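seq/struct pair 1
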Amino acid sequence: MMVLGSGEYHRFEAAGRPFVYLVPSAAVFALDDAADAVLRALAQRGRTRDELVGELSDLFPRSELDETISELERVRAIGDVHVPDKPLPKFFPLMPFPLTTMVLNVTNQCNLSCTYCYEYSEDKIVDTENGKKPKFMTEETARESVEFMLKESGANRMAHLTFFGGETLMNFPVLQKTVAYARERAAELGKEVDFSLTTNATLLRPDVIEFLAENRIGVTISIDGPKEMQDKFRVFHNGAGSYDIVAPKIKELLRRHRSRPIGARVTLTSGVLDIKRIFRHLTEDIGFWEVGFAPVTTSPGRDYAISTGGMDTVLAQFSELADEFLEAAVANRHHGFSNVKDTLEEIHKGVSKAYPCGAGLGLMGVATDGDVALCHRFAGSDSHKMGDVRTGIDRNAQMAFLEKHHIADKTDCSTCWARPLCSGGCYHEAYTRYGETTRPNLHFCEWIRGWTDVCLRVYGELSERNPAYLAQFDHMESVAERAV
């Protein structure tokens, strides 16, 4: 006789009612009273269908219970306890998978000397000072990279090209020429190219700002907040802080460049954790449209590494900003906390990741010499090479990478309810922390589950209080295609 038991789901409350996030399907369901009662009963112990109906028949009609139990079985919220859980399926993307985003590292040099930088500090994986890679990409290599991108984009009409560094604008002449070349070549092929870049803002001269505005280039500024926070780690090579240099340049960029939203990216460290103050300063005082935060990627022993207690502080402040975001969204007002918006989009689309991001799949990074790596953070690393722009993607290397890094092989993740959205976390974080990209980022597990729960609650609230807000995600390209 079949005994019913709980399936794999995460229960949460929002808008005064219970919801479940169903792990196998990555779907969110609001529970009515009957469904909630069934799940609560089975969370205590397994029961046969007749036992379940008998226990709950005083509260609900039998026909309603039968229908509810069948529906919960269908969505795999409950199931036969005697049927063993199936291992995670290991499906691979059809090849050749189109390249959606190419991150072009036009230089591996920087005019700042940020203490925590993953490219230049103690945790760097590529020697950018004395290594064999050229310090600046040539115009020829950039053109070859464009041809590579357009070819590997397959049938996609739109290709995304993100300029990166080092400090990207140190190679502004090549960037300028590459934009013109890519736009011309894409038009010849019936395609379009969307351009973006990341910069530390120190080199935002008037002519640079004018170029960015005229060419509708998306801009993300790396900045850590008010003066004392920015100047703590984001310093020039002589140790001088950078805030007084970049703040007026950023304000001028925001004044002139209005064709696309300008965002800020903040690196959180042990000494820079006042998230709400940072957010207020960057949105209200400086004028950024949105702000995203990321914990520093580093070995645990560094002075600037965030402790477990520090991550608890981050989660508490993220939660407060998420509540602000919710109230703004209910009222159809803009709120620039991009971390919650990006996660809401993934929840709404039912994202269930076999891989944590598009690295090595739809996103790849190109080093200054044209070597192709699984993402921009590994650009220039021979150990993470996946071809070059002249000969194309090494499909054998790509498939070997995808086979080794599938979520099904991360046994620590197999019982985690947040795995559809996390899939083990950033490869570069894993490499820096554990020495290998295949490892899940176990040090972030509790934090990820806590943050995902916060975002699910916001999603549930919006689904009840302003579902029209969520409809905007139906026609948006994926976060992975936009993010770097």
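seq/struct pair 2
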Amino acid sequence: MNDLTPTPGGGCRSAPVLKQRGQREVFCGLTGIIWLHRKMQDAFFLVVGSRTCAHLLQSAAGVMIFAEPRFGTAILEEQDLAGMKDAHTELDREVARLLDRRPDIRQLFLVGSCPSEVIKIDLARAAERLTQVHAPHVRVLNYSGSGIETTFTEGEDACLASMVPVLKDTPARELLLVGALPDVVEDQMLSLLGQMGIDNIRLLPARRIDETTAVGANTVFALTQPFLGETHAALMRRGARHIPAPMPFGEEGTTAWLRAVTAEFGVDDATFDAVTAAPRARARKAIAQAAEHLNGKSIFFFPDSQLEIPLARFLTRECGMTAVEVGSPYIHDAIHGPDLDLLPAGPQISEGQDVDLQLDRVRAARPDLTVCGLGLANPLEAEGLTTKWAIELVFTPVHFYEQAGDLASLFSRPIRRKSVLRVEAAE
């Protein structure tokens, strides 16, 4: 369980990948705003979209209108869609009203949606124009959260990638940690690295724009999320160098991630072991308790969040599960490769989706647990399959040692529930 060497036979990195392009079931990329607006405390996300976009955000975030969230929707009305009004003039007016009412905003993201992209509103040009008007107090950026061609986690990727070109240059040798994490998890990560003497750390995204993040040729960066392909490419274009590592899920993944980062900065084994011994032991104990219900069970992943590959590695190597199929919307070798090296050979690795064909495969396999989107979960449950909502894995703190037991419990809970219901039915 704790052997960090690649699986004999090369794991799944060189395994054939089933690539299918057909009907997909995905969540809208605007969903990323739900966790980003909580993370970036001086930012505001203004979606240029329809009332449907507004309802999605309001219901997904679970906020009341008096809560003053750090997001909103500039609603496109019929006249905007018909071209009877100048959408840019309307947008300028709404942005001015927003910034006048909310002087705490330092970063404003104009977020494209399906409607704004269909009618070709140039939000990049709008962001440049509004930056000239409202700088230096407010920086205006834009990205696409449209669900036409993207999965829901790509909203964060697009947001972070939009920030990279405007980061300051630095010649300093610094570690840049990339990916939005809950504050409590981020603090644990920084504490572990700090105890090992690594303190020249920047974060993307930072909690506030005042915590200036810079990048340059001497920057090395590590990803904490496996869905940041565009951000990875943008940082490489700025001259930064990527530290490849498994994602920090579970005891093994967290240890491998930390080893990759600390090796870059010359941390010796004795220091590493002294800092990580206690949290590793706690993680192993917590995982073992949840794994009692997972050991020997089979699991099937529909492509949804791009978390599928590292989660499959965690569940097979640390929880004793058998992966039948591991589907991911995209497979990025530089990002997913280290986890694929560790994933035991056997499962079908698939990229993209033809949902009807994949439904045929899951029905034939009848796995003990199926990880899928909300739209498929209830129908599959009605067919007798036990399911896990993929989106819950993004909204729940699951990274690093102290959350390892919670991560395993997310998968064991539906299996335990199914067994309890069977007992009750038998009685």
